[in-house]
TrEMBL record:
One of its GO terms (molecular function) is Kdo transferase activity. Involved in lipopolysaccharide (LPS) biosynthesis. Catalyzes the transfer of 3-deoxy-D-manno-octulosonate (Kdo) residue(s) from CMP-Kdo to lipid IV(A), the tetraacyldisaccharide-1,4'-bisphosphate precursor of lipid A. This is 3-deoxy-D-manno-octulosonic acid transferase. GO terms for cellular component: plasma membrane. It comes from Ramlibacter tataouinensis.
Length: 419
């Protein structure tokens, strides 16, 4: 009885959702493309039997890229249907497509739209990346006999509390998944409490990412020519940058070069303007020629160049960890040999953050001011910095293997007799 009421609420909210798309589309035109797909309406035909992978946004799509590469290695010629919920995720996902692959928006969570989606694409199986569990999506897949797995699955304590408040919806959804493969033992325990049956703890796919060697080398060449420490604020979030820029202004005597790479690309211009409002000179990556221009603050306003930025930086502050936002993932920084300074709030990636700190690849601080000063100090101490770089590389290498384990489980799921 509860799910039909939920469905009515989703249907009733669709005018608001359309309005939200129009508003977001003003800044990101990708939201205005293929809108009918969100209602299960499609222009072109589709060949049945593709493996469907849902990666809602940019981070999940980058994890999906690692998984897709492993799937192609194990089963050349596999066809992928890639779905998303955000414009940045879809733009990143487009780069992963090969002949025979398809891409679409995930339909809004009504039985009618989900049925239309399944009727049109007829996937062999579905894989939801990390956290995207929707009541009607799971229920209709179960009704249709489409195996649906949650891969690279994570669930924070905060998200578990929210799921338990809505247990009448979330528990049936989690319990109806065909398979769940968790990142960590802690995630597995929380997912089990939410109602899921966890088949394995495979680790985090992002440990298997290989940083772009050319980008990394370019960033390091630029850094070597500077003769001053570069401190990066990686994947900064709204609510954090104002304090960062205020402190950067106060620390002008430190000789540090500040580099800010906002988490959300639609905020690039906003963050640059915020730095300028604090009296700081600004240079944006999109305006660089052969080398970065001199300025108080560099803004990394490009997509797909995180390896370049980590190569350019001596130390990275972890975005999302200085406000109660849960932190961003520090694995890519470690794999690039960039030591991390993180704030007190890393509940979204609690175990990875704890393990990185224990390994010496990351440093925990209590505030933004302490973080910025600690980052400058670490960058200037050659012995400590070299030790942290080595620790990060060893930490990243020690936790590899999730991609192969996950890909093998997916292929087994999608080829089970009767599927």
């Amino acid at each position: 009885m509860i799910r039909p009421l939920y469905t009515l609420a989703v249907i009733g909210a669709q005018p608001l959702l359309r309005r939200k798309l129009r508003r977001r589309g003003a800044a990101e035109p990708g939201y205005l493309q293929h809108v009918d797909e969100r209602f299960g309406r499609y222009e072109d035909g589709a060949e049945p039997g593709a493996l469907w992978i849902h990666a809602v946004s940019l981070g999940e799509t980058r994890a999906a890229a690692i998984l897709i590469a492993q799937l192609r290695a194990l089963q050349p010629g596999i066809r992928i249907l890639l779905t998303h919920g955000t414009a940045t995720g879809r733009a990143e996902g487009e780069r992963l497509l090969r002949d025979g692959d398809r891409q679409a928006w995930l339909p809004w969570d009504t039985p009618k739209a989900v049925r239309a989606f399944l009727n049109h694409f007829r996937p062999s199986a579905g894989v939801l990346m990390e956290t995207e569990v929707w009541p009607n999506l799971v229920a209709v897949c179960r009704q249709r006999g489409v195996p649906l797995a949650l891969a690279n699955a994570r669930l924070s304590q905060k998200s578990l509390a929210q799921a338990r408040q809505l247990a009448f919806l979330s528990r049936p959804a989690y319990s109806s998944l065909t398979a769940v493969w968790a990142q960590t033992e802690g995630d597995a325990r929380r997912l089990t409490r939410a109602g899921a049956t966890v088949q394995g703890v495979f680790g985090n796919l992002k440990f298997d990412a290989t940083p772009d060697a050319q980008q990394l080398a370019q960033g390091r060449r630029w850094r070597e020519g500077l003769h001053r420490p570069v401190v990066m604020f990686a994947s900064s979030r709204e609510g954090e940058e104002a304090e960062f820029f205020r402190l950067a202004q106060a620390m002008r005597g430190s000789d540090a070069q500040w580099l800010v790479v906002p988490r959300h690309p639609q905020r690039f211009a906003e963050v640059a303007a915020l730095a300028a409002s604090q009296g700081l000179s600004v240079s944006r990556r999109s305006a660089w020629g052969e080398a970065p221009a001199r300025a108080d603050v560099w803004i990394g306003d490009s997509l797909g160049e995180m390896a370049l930025y980590y190569g350019l930086a001596d130390v990275a502050l972890l975005g999302g960890s200085f406000e109660k936002l849960g932190g961003q993932n520090l694995i890519e920084a470690a794999a690039c040999g960039c030591p991390v300074v993180m704030g007190p709030h890393t509940f979204n990636f609690a175990e990875a953050s704890r393990l990185a700190e224990e390994a010496g690849a990351a440093l925990r601080v209590a505030s933004m001011e302490e973080g910025m000063r600690s980052a400058v100090e670490l960058a200037g101490n050659r012995e400590r910095h070299t030790g942290a770089v080595r620790a990060g590389l060893a930490f990243a290498e020690a936790h590899q293997g999730a991609a192969r384990r996950t890909a093998e489980a997916i292929l087994e799921l999608s080829t089970e007799p009767g599927r």
